[in-house]
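Re: that backbone. Tokens:
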């Protein structure tokens, strides 16, 4: 096949035996060719971009902590997925491939690059449930973030207030070295990071894959990601 006729191959991570339909659909809509991998699945020999998707909490041992006793939410851990995704994140950073990291994916990338997480928002003085919106299918927005002017995120979504959905009880605590904080919620919660030492690494705490239909501006995250993967 002529290389230019090939769609960018996007590795989409997930838990074992699950197809993350919304991420897959968003990648296709953006012009990418998604390939889904869970723990134990064979990996393709090469890929053009990595999408780290949402899911359970990353084990705190990966950022040098034990499971904190007063955590309100049960920490649901998927050790095999942690290891697979940490390996893929490191490989993508080494190869300087574009990476789009969503929710758990954003937290995982921060940990892979040496940052830390709040195991529960309550440990940061924020109600544990404050970032869990209720009802619907998370296609409605529930809080704003303020996007940092001059960031790559601002070039994609615009600077200033941006309504997003929210479905997380953890968040980035200390951003990894080489990563800039590019948006926060009004309560101070870090809602996005981007790598400054890499070609294109975008970490998003909300769920753009669930907003693409009613908030089409959010599709730009995927189209920009796939465009970057096309250059891999
Ligand atoms: Mn949030």
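Recovered sequence:
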């Amino acid at each position: 096949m002529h290389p230019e006729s090939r769609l960018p191959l996007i590795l989409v991570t997930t838990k074992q035996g699950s197809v993350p339909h919304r991420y897959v659909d968003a990648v296709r809509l953006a012009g990418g060719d998604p390939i889904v991998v869970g723990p134990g699945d064979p990996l393709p020999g090469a890929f053009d971009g990595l999408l780290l998707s949402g899911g359970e909490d990353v084990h705190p041992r990966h950022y040098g902590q034990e499971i904190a006793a007063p955590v309100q939410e049960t920490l649901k851990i998927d050790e095999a997925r942690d290891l697979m995704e940490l390996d893929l994140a490191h490989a993508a950073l080494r190869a300087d491939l574009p990476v789009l990291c969503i929710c758990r994916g954003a937290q995982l990338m921060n940990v892979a690059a040496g940052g830390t997480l709040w195991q529960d928002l309550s440990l940061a003085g924020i109600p544990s449930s404050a970032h869990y919106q209720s009802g619907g299918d998370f296609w409605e927005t529930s809080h704003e973030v303020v996007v940092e002017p001059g960031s790559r995120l601002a070039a994609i979504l615009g600077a200033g207030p941006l309504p997003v959905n929210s479905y997380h009880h953890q968040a980035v605590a200390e951003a990894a070295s080489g990563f800039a904080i590019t948006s926060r919620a009004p309560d101070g919660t870090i809602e996005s990071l981007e790598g400054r030492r890499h070609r294109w690494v975008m970490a998003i705490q909300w769920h753009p894959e669930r907003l693409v239909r009613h908030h089409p501006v959010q599709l730009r995250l995927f189209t920009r990601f796939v465009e970057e993967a096309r250059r891999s």
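The pocket of manganese (II) ion is lined by residues 131, 143, 166, 168, 185, 189, 191, 205-206 (CB under 6 Å). The helical segments are 21-29, 79-95, 104-112, 152-157, 219-230.
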